[in-house]
Specification:
Elements: E1 8-9, E2 16-21, H1 30-35, E3 37-53, E4 58-77, E5 80-100, E6 113-122, E7 130-133, E8 140-146, E9 150-161, E10 166-169, E11 176-179, E12 192-205, E13 208-221
Antiparallel strand pairs: 1-3, 2-5, 3-4, 4-5, 5-10, 5-11, 6-9, 6-12, 7-11, 8-9, 12-13
Length: 228
């Protein structure tokens, strides 16, 4: 479920643009004037899926969640306001895996061990787009294969676990960002800021294993708050 976060001052290289008309009394519109400049917006995201492994008779419920933060730069341009959105950043990207007897309902079902994998890459899947990792990040950046865009530059992390039925990969100190600045993508009012990711897991029961990896699209609103 998406919820609006707090806007704070921020700055970076700008990318996509869209031209929006000013209100009829722009010269006295204090709300619009105060919203001009660079501001960061943060929204929560949560996306997931379930896969049933027939060989292992286990359902694998995979979910990614966290916050997607980005910068909005709004400034006066001719008789309107130009709005640019850039530098999306995943904050506290978390992945959970729950194993059960079936996808809908059922009960928890233990496995011998498990591994969680997450890959994150740019919405446009351009290998030239910079991937930026936070200090102390446990993610790695490389040119890797993805489920929806072939080989592109990705930030990835894989973690192994012992026996159980519920597993969580936290990344509270490991933000992952993208340095947008070459794609020129315009995002109109009502549009979305998006990144792509592959979320997957491998589970074992005894000496047998099964793996699932699926692409997910994480999108949050492109905020025009205060500009209209």
């Amino acid at each position: 479920m998406i919820r609006r976060g707090l806007a704070v001052a921020a700055g970076a290289v700008v990318a996509g643009a869209v031209l929006a008309p000013l209100p009829a009394h722009a010269g006295t519109d204090v709300g619009a004037a105060s919203a001009l400049g660079k501001k960061a917006f943060s929204y929560s995201y949560s996306e997931g899926y379930c896969f049933y492994s027939k060989p292992l008779k286990r359902a694998m419920k995979v979910r990614v969640s966290g916050k997607l933060r980005y910068v909005r730069n709004a400034y006066k341009f001719n008789r309107g306001i130009r709005v640019r959105f850039h530098d999306p950043t995943l904050v506290e990207p978390k992945v959970t895996l729950a194993t059960a007897t079936k996808c809908s309902g059922g009960r928890a079902a233990k496995v011998s061990k498990a591994r969680i994998l997450q890959l994150w890459y740019d919405w446009n899947c351009k290998s030239s787009v910079g991937v930026v990792l936070g200090r102390g990040s446990q993610f790695g950046v490389s040119l890797s294969g993805t489920r929806s865009c072939g080989k592109t530059k990705v930030a990835s992390r894989s973690t192994g676990y012992g026996a159980g039925s519920g597993f969580v990969q936290h990344n509270t100190g490991a933000p992952v960002g993208w340095s947008w600045g070459r794609d020129g993508k315009g995002i109109k009012k009502g549009g979305k800021i998006c990144v792509r990711g592959d979320a997957g897991a491998t589970i074992w029961t005894g000496n047998r294993s099964d793996t699932v990896v699926k692409p997910l699209k994480v999108c949050v609103p492109a905020s025009y708050k205060g500009l209209s």
